[in-house]
Specification:
The chain is of the alpha+beta class. It is 29% helix and 44% strand. About 4% of the residues have low confidence.
């Protein structure tokens, strides 16, 4: 297996194609990670949630990390990690265009709304949960991909 760094256009392509990953946030030196669906356009990821721990923590510390991957086989995979900043997109005139863009990108995923809705039901909120759209401003992005090639075991044996 050969592992190489991905170029930025390759990372962008993976983000646009996959649309599912894990979002990490932290508060009081405690990390928290959850699965998310996201919409992507260059420099931004868009997400949807209802109020809960993830939103509460991102409101208190806007620095986040998103990881996504695509595994086609043990020696055929790609993974992208994003460091970014959370911004909520409130339901106001000022953010209406951003919210429409977020929803448009998210709707390309068949169940984009399900995780946020299901979480609100688990929390047994008495009133219907208000949708929260948010944006992750991409500040840094790196990626690796693996492809079939020289087997690592053989490579290590040669060096011994």
């Amino acid at each position: 297996m050969v592992i190489d760094r991905m170029k930025p256009p390759e990372c962008e392509e993976l983000l646009a194609r996959v649309g599912f990953g894990r979002l990490a946030c932290a508060r009081d030196n405690q990390p928290y990670i959850v699965p998310i669906y996201f919409g992507h356009q260059p420099n931004y990821l868009f997400g949807f949630a209802t109020f809960g721990q993830k939103i509460e923590w991102m409101r208190s510390n806007s620095l986040v990390c998103v990881q996504t991957d695509e595994v086609l086989g043990p020696d055929n995979w790609a993974s992208v990690i994003i460091l970014g900043r959370y911004e909520e997109l409130p339901d106001t005139a000022e953010y209406s265009q951003w919210r429409r863009r977020a929803q448009s990108l998210l709707e390309r995923r068949s169940l984009w709304w399900e995780a946020g809705y299901a979480a609100s039901q688990v929390r047994s909120q008495p009133n219907p949960a208000a949708p929260i759209f948010y944006c992750i401003h991409i500040q840094e992005m790196t990626g690796l991909h693996a492809s079939p090639g020289e087997k690592l075991v053989e490579k290590w044996r040669l060096k011994s």
